[in-house]
């Protein structure tokens, strides 16, 4: 039953964000010398690796992230993560991202799904993006507020924009 609820939630999250990923964008770079239309990267897909800490418990975190830029400063996306170790739970969330230069600030409502049940959560986080060729490397620190407790998540996102 728990896996079924997680799959339904993930399907809803993907169905919400997928149309944005395939929407057509025609943007013109006003600083361009030749006046040609330049396609800006609006979609980012990546992997997350890191660790989670709550009290004396620690875990390793693996996840997938997707973000669609709605403007130069704002984006929306999907986070799907699983934590192993002292913990065993999955997180599914929808981040609302504010970008200012290389900084990424976000708030993400979502759910934590574990053997003890499904709890709602709020994730607050920040990251700093570095460009590495065609990739974006974003060290990130987040705090999950779940059932009156705080879980700290520290890691790095390696994403590809398209």
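Sequence proposed for the structure above (162 residues):
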């Amino acid at each position: 039953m728990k896996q079924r609820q997680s799959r339904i939630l993930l399907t809803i999250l993907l169905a919400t964000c997928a149309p944005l990923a395939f929407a057509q964008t025609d943007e013109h770079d006003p600083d361009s010398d030749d006046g040609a239309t330049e396609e800006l990267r609006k979609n980012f897909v990546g992997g997350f690796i890191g660790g989670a800490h709550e009290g004396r418990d620690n875990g390793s975190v693996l996840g997938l992230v997707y973000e669609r830029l709605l403007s130069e400063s704002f984006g929306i996306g999907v986070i799907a993560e699983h934590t192993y170790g002292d913990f065993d739970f999955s997180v599914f969330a929808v981040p609302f991202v504010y970008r200012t230069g290389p900084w990424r600030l976000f708030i993400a409502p979502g759910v934590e799904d574990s053997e003890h049940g499904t709890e709602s959560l709020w994730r607050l986080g920040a990251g700093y993006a570095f460009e590495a060729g065609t990739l974006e490397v974003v060290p990130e620190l987040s705090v999950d507020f779940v059932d009156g407790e705080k879980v700290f998540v520290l890691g790095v996102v390696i994403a590809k924009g398209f």
